[in-house]
Design brief:
The protein has about 325 residues and is α+β, with helices and mostly antiparallel strands. The chain contains 6 helices and 17 strands. The strands form 3 sheets. Strands 10, 11, 12, 13, 14, 15, 16 and 17 form an 8-stranded mixed beta sheet that branches. Strands 2-1-9-8-5-4 form a 6-stranded mixed beta sheet. It has a 3-stranded antiparallel beta sheet with strand order 3-6-7. Strand 13 and strand 14 form a beta hairpin.
Length: about 325
């Protein structure tokens, strides 16, 4: 991997805008009634059209638009890793006003199925303009890499998670960071521990959450050891990853190659503050705080990294299907 360079990321972005399954775990039942037909499988075109509408509503501060678009279990991470649920997100959007020039676009679209009821959409957003949030006006970060987890809700698809990182040209910035694949040196200083502002399952209070935190920690330890075989074992057949610089790997082969071929000297890793959002009996989102100590490209690694991972249980064990690092 070529030597790369560090940057300061803007915190405000265009926000749309045991190790086995517990006894009795089974695929979610179809709860649709005669009054509503199951939603057809989504296409990249249909979901990116919804993302465009969401961005337009965000520009106008139209929080009402998101009432039907966001799942009641929706989660996103705010500054410093703070968790935001549906109500908090809508409240934030209501205070936003953006002046974005025509010509903004969403491209580099990739849609990945996790199961019949869960899909991950990644795309690049390019914008030119300003946004005012909480009375402060700043240039809209651009380009950004956005990810949305879409889940089936009777006859429609709703968003259960949305995250975004500004895309950074690492070769064009000023000084080299510690960058190593799964974890990079965070440009944001350490803040308070991740807060929990929604009903959820924190580690220590829920056995499935504890299981997922253990697996997440094992993934980080396998990354530390550059153990491709272990990473293969711990991850789902469909695996994707977004790093804090907006880089994305959309296949399992590319992701494991990235994680297992770094040349850093990693001394220790940690995963703490795990909180689980259950989307169904077999699919869960885990938000957490991660850290790694070591040296990359002559620099000390730092953190924290705030992570969001999607896990699926296909019958024998929970496996990592997607993870996103946020500074």
């Amino acid at each position: 991997m070529n030597k790369v360079t560090a940057v300061v990321l803007t915190a405000i972005a265009v926000l749309f805008a045991g190790c086995g399954a517990p006894a009795g775990n089974a695929p979610a039942k179809n709860t649709t009634t005669n009054a509503s037909k199951p939603a057809a499988a989504p296409t990249a075109d249909s979901l990116i059209a919804l993302e465009r509408q969401a961005n337009e509503a965000y520009f106008e501060g139209d929080a009402k638009f998101f009432e039907s678009m966001l799942s009641d279990k929706f989660v996103t991470l705010g500054p410093g890793g703070s968790r935001m649920d549906k109500a908090a997100t809508m409240n934030m959007i209501g205070g936003v006003r953006c002046d974005i020039k025509d010509g903004w676009k969403l491209d580099e679209v990739n849609l990945s199925p996790i199961d019949a009821d869960t899909y991950i959409l990644n795309y690049k957003g390019t914008f030119d303009g300003n946004c005012t949030v909480d009375g402060k006006t700043e240039k809209a970060p651009s380009p950004i890499r956005s990810t949305t987890v879409w889940v089936r809700s009777d006859d429609k698809w709703v968003a259960a998670f949305h995250g975004k990182n500004q895309i950074i040209d690492l070769n064009a910035a000023a000084s080299p960071p510690a960058q190593s694949g799964l974890v990079q040196k965070s440009p944001v200083k350490d803040k308070n521990a991740v807060s929990n502002a929604m009903p959820s399952n924190p580690a220590g209070e829920d056995p499935v959450t504890d299981t997922l935190v253990t697996i997440e920690r094992s993934v980080w330890e396998a990354w530390k050891a550059t153990d491709a075989a272990k990473l293969e074992e711990l991850t789902n057949k469909d695996l994707s990853f977004v790093d804090i610089f907006g880089n994305v790997t959309s296949t399992k082969a590319d992701t494991i190659k990235l994680w297992s071929e770094h040349k850093c000297e990693v001394k220790s890793v940690s995963v703490t503050d795990g909180v689980r959002i259950s989307l169904s009996p077999t699919v869960s989102i885990l938000t957490f705080r991660g850290n790694a100590e070591g040296i990359c490209y002559g620099q000390a690694m730092g953190g924290p990294i705030y992570g969001t991972s999607l896990y699926i249980n296909s019958g024998d064990a929970w496996k990592l299907a997607f993870t996103m690092n946020s500074p």
